[in-house]
Amino acid sequence: MTSQSIKQFSFIGLFVLCLTGFIGPAFSLLLGLAFTLIFTNPYLSLSNQASKWLLKLAVIGLGFNVDFNDVLEVGRSSFVLTIVSITAIIGLGEILGQLFKVNKNTSVLLSFGTAICGGSAIAAMAPVIKAKQHEIAVSLAIVFLLNGLALLIFPAIGHYFQLSQEQFAIWAALAIHDTSSVVATASTYGPIAVGIATTIKLTRAMWIIPYTALAGVFWKSEEKASIPLFIVGFLFAALINTYLPEYSSFWQLGYAGAKHVLYACLFLVGSSVSLAMLKQTGWRPLAMATLLWCIVSSVILLLITDGVIN
Hints:
Blueprint: H1 3-19, H2 25-39, H3 44-62, H4 68-77, H5 79-99, H6 104-115, H7 118-128, H8 133-160, H9 165-175, H10 179-187, H11 191-205, H12 208-219, H13 229-243, H14 248-271, H15 275-280, H16 283-305
Helix pairs in contact: 1-2, 1-14, 2-14, 3-13, 3-14, 4-11, 5-6, 5-16, 6-7, 6-8, 6-16, 7-8, 7-12, 8-10, 8-16, 9-10, 9-11, 9-16, 10-11
Membrane topology: Multi-pass membrane protein
Family: Belongs to the UPF0324 family.
InterPro entries: UPF0324_pro (IPR018383)
């Protein structure tokens, strides 16, 4: 057996191990990261494609454990907070982008991704502002790094401040970029946190459309964004879970399977990191995005602990 064959066999074995659910989300991510940095990913292109689709599938499956009425209530009760927070984060990102002299498009993508939902928001905004491929790549790489960091440190911070599962869910949903990372981080904190965090984050993600439309006016772009299909799938799963309770045993199987898929996906996400990706980010956009994220996370945490956001 050649060294390449051993590497491939080991990679598949670790993927299956994560899929079983015996390994938690944080360790799955770290395992993938360690493997690719030490041995390199033998299926890099396939991992990138598979992780994107499987993550969407996992998010849809998580809807089988959510009450559709809760989704409506979250959307209604957080309407003003969502508009104010998204606008404030984008505005702060603009200021920091100028302070760090970050490329305009990269700054917009990072701000938009921080404000709404990471990679999905970046992908939606990129064609509207006519972002170049390297600007998109840098933004996605930075968001990935911050997502991974959040997965590792947020639960510890939450326990330090003795946040309830409900409080932690709100914090994670508002402060962590990508939906998948929000779900993974919340799942390490507790089952109640997962449902609340997923609902809040996906409700927030639907604001991609009005904000990209507004950006299109300023950039004089005819590009239109649409709601990501995995959000529609999540809403449909929540809908049938709520109004077809007689099949709850099947819905719970779907939910359990989604969590296993999510853990395996985090291994793939971690294994997709490369030294080239880390090098291409550059210190200015990385510093700008990190400072923006730290400010947003800290302010939201303060507002939650003070009872302003609940």
